[in-house]
Amino acid sequence: MIIVKAEKEDLQKILDLQYLAYQSEAMLFDNQDIPPLKQTLTDVEDEYQIGLILKALDENNVIIGSVRAFCNNGTVYIGKLMVHPSKQGQGIGTQLLLEMEKQYPKQRYELFTSTRSEKNIALYKKLGYKIFDNKQVTEELRFVYMEKV
Q1: DSSP secondary-structure letter at 128?
Q2: Cross-strand pairs, 101
Q3: Spatial CA neighbour of 131 closest among 142, 144, 143
Q4: Phi, psi torsion values for 128, nearest 5 degrees
Q5: Are 146 and 129 in contact (CB under 8 A)?
Q6: Whole-number mean pLDDT of the chain?
Q7: pLDDT in tens, 40-89
């Protein structure tokens, strides 16, 4: 596996992977109406313009993971960390996150996830992220915000 910067022509494949990878999040809420499943190609293209998107490729050059980030006032906002469901639990998400941190060295890193996403929270804690805030988004959805300084 290698991790490289995504190109504009990769964005549809990354969005397709996002729709697949975020099904597990949707199942946590028994609701397909979550932001990652509603995002459009135009939305991803906008994120591509303002930040960095990395992709993880398998030995056949198939995209099996991705992560996005942008920097604003000394904070790197990391989002949409995803790995193909058949490849989860193999350290790909960890490698993607660590590679994104290398792209923006010596910064404050911030990300968020659902309080129900216990695997995500455990991964982020293992990599040195600490909870600093949480917010109720809807009656069922609460986000936990984590940082690494």
Answers
A1: T
A2: none
A3: 144
A4: 100, 5
A5: yes
A6: 95
A7: 999 999 999 999 999 999 999 999 999 999 999 999 999 999 999 999 99
